[in-house]
Amino acid sequence: MNTNTDTDLESQKLETIWLELALSKENSSRQIFKTHSKQITLLSEGSPGEWILRIEYQSEGYHPELSDNFRDLRIEYSKQSSANNPAAVTIAYSLRNRENLPFWPHFAEDVIRDVKLAKSGKGNARAIEGVLAQWKKFWPSKSKLREPIARGLYGELYFMRQLAGQVGLDRAVNAWQGQDRNLHDFSLQGQAIEVKTVGARSLATISSLQQLDAKGVESLYLVSIRLTKTRDKKYSLQTLGDSLIAMASEYPQVQSLLRLKLAKSGWLKGSVKEREAFCYNVQAFSFYRVVEGFPRLTKSTLENLGRALKVSTYQVDLNHASAFRLSPEEQKMFWSTLLSPDSPPASIS
Asked: What pLDDT sits at residue 347?
């Protein structure tokens, strides 16, 4: 199994620096980035459980919209003013819960990467807001895991397990991208896959105009997973997640990446007991090719209908999309498309 792409060297270096810092003497600090207009520092303070990522930059009048109601994360914001730096801003992210320390370097890496790339005060502010929005599921204001999130996550993990059986777990974990604000849940070999769980009526809820938009990808597929509730904990969300983590036990980098993506997808919003309460049987597993004629709304189709019509969420009745459903043979062709990096996309008609 090739794990070279699972975590890049920059992330590994940051994790090493962070762990060294967190375990070092009180009030230690390490500067990790500095230019004439901004600097980023990692700090380990004397108070128990205090690890801080401090960002200082020239605001140019732009300030991020911040909220401090994230579980286990305290955000401090201050403005400074001096003759040399009349419009500076300091943002300090402080971790409260030691149990979340393994995820902290990954959060810090996201913040550092986006702030380093920003070219202006406005860019810095938007970068900070964007990372917080991306990690909102991990540090929510309320910890209860709700049915729609649990059900959707179950569907994505179930599909990942099927994908891992075809291409290997390392590639399957890397292909899972929905939690990183990408347009589609999975992306591999130019093929984009949107996973939807449905009930007996086969209604797929589409939460944005981009989800079924094939722009920028070679092919787009919708995977429908029909679920029914059960009380058998063998089929719980917890059991499904644990089985994937166990599959990666011999490959620490893959397992670390999987745990991180689970966290960013809302896995930690609930307790083990809550995750064990969401149990499902898979009744049907179907593929649909999303091509011209498939029932969907996109930005372009909505513009054609008129500017006065505003739609963000809608449902597709898959009972009326049978013409686009892949046959068993076509599904085999789809899986073969993903196997070799050198294979061209399969012609599925």
From this structure: 36
In the Cβ-directed half-sphere of 166, how many Cα atoms lie within 13 Å?
18
Cα–Cα distance for residue pair 71/267, rounded to 1 Å:
14
User: Over the stretch 194-245, which tens digit does the pLDDT of each residue have?
Assistant: 999 999 999 999 988 889 999 889 999 999 999 999 999 999 999 999 999 9
> What's the chain's length in residues?
349
The amino acid that residue 93 corresponds to is Y
Answer left, alpha or beta for residue 107, where phi above 0 means left and psi between -120 and 50 means alpha. alpha
Give the integer Cα–Cα distance in Å for 216 and 191.
10
- Residue 183 is classified by DSSP as S
Pair 45, 98 in one domain: yes
Mean pLDDT of the chain: 82
Answer whether residue 344 is part of any domain.
Answer: no
What was the pLDDT predicted at 32?
Answer: 82
The domain in which residue 161 lies consists of 147-339
C-alpha to C-alpha distance for 288 and 215, rounded to whole angstroms: 17
Nearest-CA neighbor of 58 among 41, 38, 75? 38
DSSP string computed for 226-292: EEEE-S-GGGBHHHHHHHHHHHTTT-HHHHHHHHHHHHHTTGGGS-HHHHHH-BEEEEEEEEEE--T
pLDDT digits (tens, 9 = 90+) for 285-311: 999 999 999 999 888 877 766 666 667
User: How many Cβ atoms from other residues are within 10 Å of residue 142's Cβ?
Assistant: 9
Instruction: Quote the number of domains for the chain.
Output: 2
Residue 281, token pair as written in the block: 């049987």
Domain boundary among 134, 166, 197: 134
pLDDT digits (tens, 9 = 90+) for 41-66: 888 765 555 678 888 888 887 878 77
Report yes or no on 140 lying in a domain.
no
Contacts 24+ apart (CB under 8 A), 147-154: 147/278, 149/266, 149/269, 150/237, 150/270, 150/275, 150/278, 151/197, 151/227, 151/278, 151/280, 152/195, 152/197, 153/237, 153/265, 153/266, 153/267, 154/197, 154/227, 154/237, 154/240, 154/278, 154/280
CA dist 27 and 40 (Å) reads: 16
Task: Answer yes or no: are the C-beta atoms of 59 and 120 closer than 8 Å.
Answer: no
